[in-house]
Write a structure and sequence with these properties.
heterodimer; A: mainly alpha; 2 domains; 3% strand; B: mainly alpha
Chain lengths: 635, 506
């Protein structure tokens, strides 16, 4: 089993060290081959798993008297699903990248990073303890940072990389403290030690116990990685990286690590209902919030980024209402259709010669048919149209939310339904503006529009098929299926005791119809505003003035953050941060901050004057303080 | 004096002899002799290490020279660390010495003498002996810092180091004198007993005229003495508020010497710091723990914040070394067996990654240390993959990313601090290490994400330097994946160091 993560690492090492001398074909063969092999291995491991779980211990990592951590990998249905998604979708994206990245400089570096990313991601999902998980956790962050900044010649891309790293680091801090707390509570970081013990804990009903605190701290990490409110700001900027990176890291795999960690820690969360409540609320608000922003964005990748944030919010919310299985189910279908959306967007951008503004597209339906059809499939899956994959997973989440016994389940459901409607609007807008209507591209660009090569379209087709049938394994019971998927996952996940009232089938059917209707309505609104009556959209924008500007500017969150966090940091003498994060913000407040920085810098310089007499003076001053303290303390 | 006494200091004797041989060769042999010097220095270090290994197991050795020296596992750990550091510095400076046309004989002789002094520091169990060891290593270091004679900044930093260093040593000496006045002893174990019994031990001389002097230990005097000792040691480990010399000296010194100072000298200073405070002053811990607490916190904060502002890599690493001293002080503050072991482990991990980082800086700096600005590192990732990759590993370890030695160093430190209920200090420490990630990563960003601004020549990596890089990299990973062996060694040494106290054994 250890070969699954090691193979991509080998690929990364080969390409990183010798890739410079290899032709593109060789580089691609190494990178894709490594991922393909580990996909096959993962598949074999999962098929042979059956109902059991497997813990493979390789050798002790830390072997203290009171504290033991091993290098161990843990395979249960949850990590099996995750590793299949990671290697499977990863494989398709690698193949796609061969076409997309041809012609770029330093392709070996790109593939080395991608393989390295897969290594860390697999370490993350297969780890048998929280410490090894942390290795993967930090590693994927680093790779994401390197890959976002891949076009390092673009200033904004490098900045985006930094932003992603710093923002997620905030969440990681909470995560780290959570791990320390886990260790002090359970005396171990091993899953198989912690989870049975956690189940022995009394349910933390008033939210004051350790488990609630641990849950909230782990949530902080998940919020950073999975781009939830309030740490989501890095994800839209991360879109400056190459498109396959966005598909792999920022849609299908890394950003779902936060959801994974919550699902993995489900035995802890079920004992801490208050923490779960917070999880649900954060997820729900994020889902709605990101969907509203998505409606007015004009950059094709940014729309998809906000959509990702919104869908991640769905998954987090599902975890929050105790429907961990539904969350993982949605995680899987989302990996299929969102990867496809990104790859499709990449194909569109490729065809348009690098254009990403959907206002300058239009009428592409005929010119790039394969991209269009696959994109359409993915969009239908996203809005949850029957019988596409997204329908089953999204509906499952809505149903479980509705019947959740957590307080306010109904309210969450209403908000989630609203989100579903908004989702249909923004993705409808995207599809209509890009593929239908008149072409609004420059004639120069328009004449060059072409379908992508086979190596790119085949992964699209495979993903499109998956977006269609991928949800069928979770066919709900009342439609004549048996929901194999969630039953299979059950042993890996804990379920809150009696959290779900058994709902009636007719009610479930009704709700399903309702959500389909909402989605259809959303699509119709998009159709009406953005295709049929474009002037109506403008009129609406004018009529709603303030709200329109608020949405267009993404609620000014970046600006607020800059004011609240960046400025104090600047005052905290860090000229460096000022230069990288705050460029362009010219107003009185910032000038003041700059002056403060300079004077602080000057103060530092004055201390570090190089003058030896003043240095000796500082030593004497320090010594006097110490002596004063010690003598008064002693006497 | 017995033969066993001489065997206890055999490592130091071997180093002194090797140093003298190298020095004489340098003086009398004119041509092409430079090649022999590193070889002899390495042989000397190897011999000294052999002399340490020969005396294994270290737990049952009698103290030498009437209790002045103690070759216990603690001391053996540090000896091995110093020899390793010195050997890596010798290997990594061969290019540098040739390039800058330094007097190779003197250079290597001084390195050996400094190492010898550090060895004495690690073994000494007596304040006087500590002072002697400290001075031997310091005097050699002062000269080494100013070894680029033609360069003004080098001489300047040497002078600064010398003046401030002497100044601090004066505090230390005064502290020793007061401690003797208060307890009547300079031997650490005796001081411990005297403080425990609250009896001045001058009576041990059993001279009837002196009996009037017997009396309780004056606590204010002890407090004053602790403060003065603290000044001396804190200066050597460059902890706030006595860190002021560090950036200037580290920047001006030849890069391999900076590597030596920031790892070897710092480790030696921590060795005596630990021994004096954990052995002799263990009983008055409630007084000095707060000094460590505040000094550790300030070192982390000040070191990290100032490092954020630097554009010169050597200076950045200097401030970072202040911050690392702060982390180590966090474990020290725990003043437990676990804390001592954590300090030892951290020093080993830090030595390896920091020597590696300085080796890259030294190699890349080129003639006259021309390229030591951060922007010079732009695009290094493409022109010199080995250099850049190893630098990345060292920087990641300095951040404390898992799978590297730096991670476990921090992990053990914060664990020890937590077990000692230093929750706030731990939280602040973790926060600090998060801040620190920023300036280390900046170098990585420059190496991999910025196009080269100008064509900077990158010399080919010679075998000796290549060995240092690969060795440090491998060791950094090894400590990150199999930390147990080193940690066990450190834990046993720490246990042994503190165990004798409990029994009140001399």
């Amino acid at each position: 089993m250890w070969l699954i993560p090691i193979l991509p690492l080998l690929g990364a090492a080969l390409n990183g060290l010798w890739g410079k001398r290899l032709p593109l074909r060789g580089i691609a063969a190494i990178a894709v081959g490594a991922v393909a092999c580990s996909f096959l291995l993962a598949l074999i491991a999962c098929l042979s798993l059956g109902d059991a779980t497997r813990m493979e211990v390789y050798f002790p990592w830390i072997a203290g008297a009171d504290f033991q951590v091993d290098f161990n990998l843990y395979l249960d249905p949850l990590s099996a699903v995750m590793s299949l998604i990671v290697t499977g979708v990863g494989l398709l994206i690698h193949i796609y990248s061969i076409g997309y990245m041809s012609g770029e400089k330093g392709v070996h570096r790109f593939f080395a990073y991608m393989n390295l990313f897969l290594f860390f991601m697999l370490t993350l999902v297969l780890a048998g303890n929280y410490l090894l998980l942390l290795v993967g956790w930090e590693g994927v962050g680093l790779c994401s940072y390197l890959l976002i900044g891949y076009y390092f010649r673009r200033e904004d891309a490098a900045d985006a990389g930094k932003k992603a790293f710093i923002v997620t680091r905030l969440g990681d801090l909470g995560f780290l403290i959570g791990l320390i707390l886990l260790y002090t509570t359970f005396g171990s970081l091993d899953y198989l030690v912690i989870f049975p013990e956690a189940a022995q804990f009394p349910v933390d009903s008033d939210g004051s116990g350790t488990l609630t605190l641990i849950g909230l701290l782990l949530l902080a990490g998940a919020v950073g990685k999975s781009a939830q409110i309030p740490l989501y700001v890095w994800l839209p900027d991360a879109m400056l990286g190459p498109t396959p990176v966005s598909a792999l890291i920022h849609a299908a795999t890394m950003v779902t690590a936060g959801v994974y960690i919550i699902a993995r820690s489900s035995p802890i969360y079920v004992q801490a209902p208050e923490a779960l409540m917070v999880v649900a609320v954060i997820g729900c608000i994020t889902a709605l919030y990101a969907a509203t922003i998505g409606i007015l964005q004009t950059d094709i990748k940014r729309i998809l980024a906000y959509s990702t944030i919104s869908q991640l919010g769905y998954m987090v919310m599902a975890c929050g209402v105790g429907a961990f299985g539904a969350a993982v189910f949605h995680l899987m279908t989302h990996a299929f259709f969102k990867a496809l959306l990104f790859l499709g967007a990449g194909s569109v951008i490729h065809a348009m010669g690098g254009e990403q503004d959907i206002r300058k597209m239009g009428g592409l339906r005929k010119k790039i048919p394969v991209t269009f059809w696959t994109f359409l499939f993915a969009s239908l899956a996203l809005i949850g149209a029957f019988p596409f994959a997204g329908f089953f997973s999204k509906d499952e989440i809505l149903w479980r939310t509705f019947t959740s016994s957590t307080g306010g389940g109904r309210l969450l459901w209403v908000l989630a339904l609203l989100t579903a409607g908004l989702t249909a609007v923004y993705i409808g807008r995207l599809v209509f503006l890009t593929f239908f209507g008149e072409s609004r591209a420059d004639p120069e660009v328009a004449s060059h529009i072409h379908e992508s090569p086979k190596v790119m379209t085949i992964p699209l087709i495979v993903l499109a098929v998956l977006s269609l049938i991928g949800g069928w394994i979770g066919w709900p019971r009342f439609l004549g299926g048996s929901n194999h998927f969630e039953r299979w996952l059950e042993p890996a996940l804990a379920a809150p005791a009696a959290a779900h009232a058994a709902g009636e089938e007719s009610l479930e059917f009704l709700l399903m119809g309702l959500s389909l209707a909402v989605a259809a309505l959303g699509v119709y609104i998009a159709y009406y505003l953005f295709l049929k009556r474009r002037e109506a959209a403008d009129r609406l924008a004018q009529a709603s003035g303030g709200i329109y500007r608020l949405l267009l500017n993404k609620y000014y969150v970046d600006e607020i953050y800059r004011f609240l966090f960046v400025k104090p940091l600047v005052m905290g003498s860090t000229e460096v941060l000022w230069k990288t994060l705050d460029v362009g913000a010219i107003d009185g407040a910032v000038n003041l901050a700059a002056r403060t920085t300079r004077s602080l810098g000057n103060a530092l310089r004055k201390i570090q004057s190089g003058n030896i007499r003043s240095y000796a003076g500082w030593v004497v001053l320090g010594a006097l303080l110490l002596i004063g303290f010690m003598v008064t303390a002693a006497s | 004096m017995q033969t066993s006494d001489l065997i206890r200091i055999l490592p130091e004797i071997i180093l002194a002899v090797a140093g003298i041989v190298v020095m004489l060769l340098g003086a009398f042999q004119k041509q092409n002799a430079g090649r022999m010097h590193p070889a002899i220095a390495l042989l000397g270090l190897l011999g000294a290490a052999g002399a340490i290994a020969y005396q294994y197991p270290w737990r049952s050795l009698d103290p030498a020279f009437g209790g002045m020296l103690e070759l216990d596992a603690f001391s053996a750990f540090f000896h091995i660390l110093f020899f390793l550091v010195a050997a890596l510095v010798v290997l990594s400076s061969s290019e540098y010495v040739a390039q800058e046309r330094l007097a190779s004989g003197e250079y290597h002789a001084l390195l050996l003498f400094a190492t010898m002094g550090m060895g004495l520091m690690a073994s000494s169990n007596d304040l006087i002996m500590i002072f002697i060891g400290l001075e031997i290593s310091s005097l050699a270091s002062y000269i080494l810092v100013g070894f680029r004679r033609g360069v003004a900044t080098s001489s300047e930093s040497s002078l600064k180091y010398f003046l401030l260093g002497s100044f601090a040593t004066a505090f230390l000496l005064y502290g020793i004198a007061l401690m003797f006045g208060a307890t009547g002893a300079t031997n650490l174990t005796e001081i411990h007993l005297a403080l425990q019994a609250e009896q001045n031990t001058v009576t041990a001389m059993a001279s009837p005229q002196l009996t009037p002097l017997v009396g309780p230990v004056p606590t204010a005097l002890v407090g004053l003495s602790i403060a003065l000792l603290f000044v001396g040691f804190a200066f050597k480990v460059s902890a706030v508020p006595f860190q002021i010399w560090t950036p200037d000296v580290y920047q001006g010194a030849p890069t391999p010497v900076t590597a030596f100072l920031s790892t070897g000298s710092k480790a030696a200073a921590f060795a005596v710091f630990l021994r004096v405070f954990m052995v002799a002053l263990e009983g008055s811990a409630q007084d000095w723990v707060w000094l460590l607490w505040v000094s550790g916190l300030l070192s982390m904060v000040l070191g990290n914040l100032a490092a954020l502002l630097q554009t010169n890599i050597k200076r950045m690493l200097a401030y970072s070394s202040i911050a690392h001293a702060g982390y180590i002080l966090v474990a020290f503050t725990a003043h437990s067996e676990e804390g001592v072991a954590a300090v030892m482990f951290y020093l080993a991990a830090y030595a390896l990654m920091n020597i590696g980082a300085f080796a890259v800086v030294s190699h890349f700096g080129n003639r006259g240390e021309r390229y030591v600005e951060m922007e010079h590192y732009a695009g290094l990732g493409y022109r010199a993959p080995l250099l850049a990759a190893s630098m990345t590993v060292f920087l990641l370890s300095l951040i404390g990313i898992p799978l590297t030695g730096g991670f476990f160093g921090k992990f053990y430190i914060f664990r020890a601090a937590l077990h000692a209920d230093l929750v706030w200090l731990t939280v602040l420490g973790v926060l600090n290490s998060a801040i620190a990630a920023y300036y280390y990563l900046r170098v990585i960003v420059f190496m991999y994400m910025h196009p080269a601004a100008e064509q900077i020549p990158v010399e080919r990596v010679r075998p000796a330097m290549g060995f240092v890089l690969i060795f440090s990299m491998a060791a950094t990973f090894l400590l990150g994946i199999f930390p147990q062996a080193v940690l066990d060694f450190a834990s046993q040494a720490a246990a042994l160091l503190l165990e004798n106290l409990g029994n009140g054994v001399l």
